[in-house]
Structure formats: structure tokens, C-alpha cells
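User: hey, got a sec? need NADP-retinol dehydrogenase folded
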Amino acid sequence: MNIATELFVVTFKIIWSFVLAGAKWFIRPREKSVEGQVCVITGAGSGLGRLFALEFARRRATLVLWDINRQSNEETAEMAREIYRQLKPSTGSSDRVQELPLLQPKVYTYMCDVSKRESVYLTAEKVRSEVGDIDLLINNAGVVSGRHLLDCPDELIERTMMVNCHAHFWTTKAFLPKMLELNHGHIVTVASSLGLFTTAGVEDYCASKFGAIGFHESLSHELKAADKDGIKMTLVCPFLVDTGMFEGCKIRKEMAPFFPPLKPEYCVKQAMRAILTDQPMICTPRVMYMVTFMKTVLPFDAIVCMYKFIGADKCMYPFLAQRKESTNNNESKTGI
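Assistant: Yep! Here you go:
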């Protein structure tokens, strides 16, 4: 195929991709079934991780829950088991109904510090021996230091990078080889809108999320280059979620109604819809797509003006001050 013909084909494919994307606004894609599939979720003990676990439990997936906090992880597991107990038997033949006890989904819990690659690899080996091969990997675990750069100990910066970014390398290296062998699987990166654009005061967090997104996009291209179309990738980039992680964050009060913190349940439901329809990326709310686009076309000084108008330039400062006060209070109690 000469270059002129190939250019025509590429142009047609690009236009067709726009048509397909537009059609999804009017025709909702059918959600795939994850019943019986093994789903690993990091950071499952609280926040979005717990909600992801409950959503996958409602869809009869076998859950493998990772968290550094054993107690909170077990609490999530018990919530999932309660959902399993309330589920009605799957519709199908009488043989399937009789086999239901054998196919009843299970929950497995593992205490794992994803910032340590040895812990990740050891836990992944336990999962393979005790559960089997996995189908879905939800890289959800995340932390925030809540310190200004010059006030933040190096150890906290390193931990933020390890948990929010480097852990994705370790979990993916642990589970991707089997996915490649079978040409089957789904990897989900739970990042943040702060991995697409930034604000002041959370340099370590933004850098970690930018890194996670870069890793995800590069891996997506690698899978496409290897013709591994059976392995799906979904990038989740929510705006600030009301989980308490950034409690105190505020923008200009007149603009606050237009950019409210997202309800965790809404965020996860939107992400689940994207995962189950093999959508490559989901930003919530949708205005985040426009913000990201404007960042690429506007001069930096124009972006600074917009930030100041919205109150996004110092939106993290109340959160940082609140974190500092909390830290000082804890140190005072310890001293007493």
C-alpha cells in the first residue's frame, strides 16, 4: 500500500472513530458480564476502593481485596459477602441452578503495602496459588501527604510516588504476563483530574498522578502495538471526590456550585459504566474534558488568570492548613 492510499485509509479511520464516539452519546453500549471473573482491587479498605468492591460484588465477580489496613479490608469483605448472600440465583438452566453453590462468588483478602514491590510480588504469588489467574486489575490505592513542598519530609514525598505511581508498575508486572498469554484481561488505573492539570500546594500528588497516567497511556499503546486487543485498559480521572482525602479544599464561593466535590457513589458508578463498556478513559464530571483541552491550547498566563478567577490557584491552601493543624495537634498529644 503506497503512502497516499494509506493516508486516505488512516483519515477514514479517524473520521469513523469520531462517528462511533458520537454514536455512543445516543446508543448506550452494552455492558459486559464480569460474573465469575477474578477482580483484584488495591486500596479496597475504604473510599473508592470499597465502593468498587461492592459494585463488582453486585455483578457476581470474585473479589481479591488488597489493603494495608487488615481491619478495614475485612470490613469491606464482609459487606461484599452480605451482597452475595442477598443475590438471587442466576437465571439459566436447572443444571446451572444446581451448580450455584459451586459457582458462588468468593471474597479473598490480603494485607499488602503496594509501595513495596517485594510485598506486591509476594501477595500476587499468593493470589495465583490460592485464587488462580485474575481477569481484572483495579489500581486504586492512593495517598496524599497534605504538605507544602518545602514542608514535606522526603519520606512522605517518596511514599506518595510509590503508592500512587510506582505501585502500578509492580502490580501490572505481576499480573500482565498471564493476561498477555491468554490475550484476556482488563487493567483500570484510578488516577485523578490532578493528573491532567495541576494546582498549587500538591506537587507530589500531582506528579504521582501524572506519572500514573503516563504509565497507563504508554502501556495502552504497547498493548495495541502487540495486537493484544483482548486486554482492555480504562483510565479513570475524577474531579475531587468527597471521601475526606482533600477535606477543606475550597474554590471561590460564587463558583463552588458549578464545581462541587463528587459523591463517591456517583464517581464509581460512572467508572463502572466505563469499565464494563471497555471505555478507554472516563473523566467526571464531563467538564474536565474541556478543562484539559483548554490547558493544551491556552497560553500559560491565560490559564493562571482563569485559575485566579475561579479560585483554583489556592484552592488547596485551606486543606493544607487543616492538615497542618491536625498534625500539630497529634504531635502535641504524643508529647503529652
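Quick note: The two ends are 78 Å apart (CA to CA). Let me know if you need anything else on NADP-retinol dehydrogenase.
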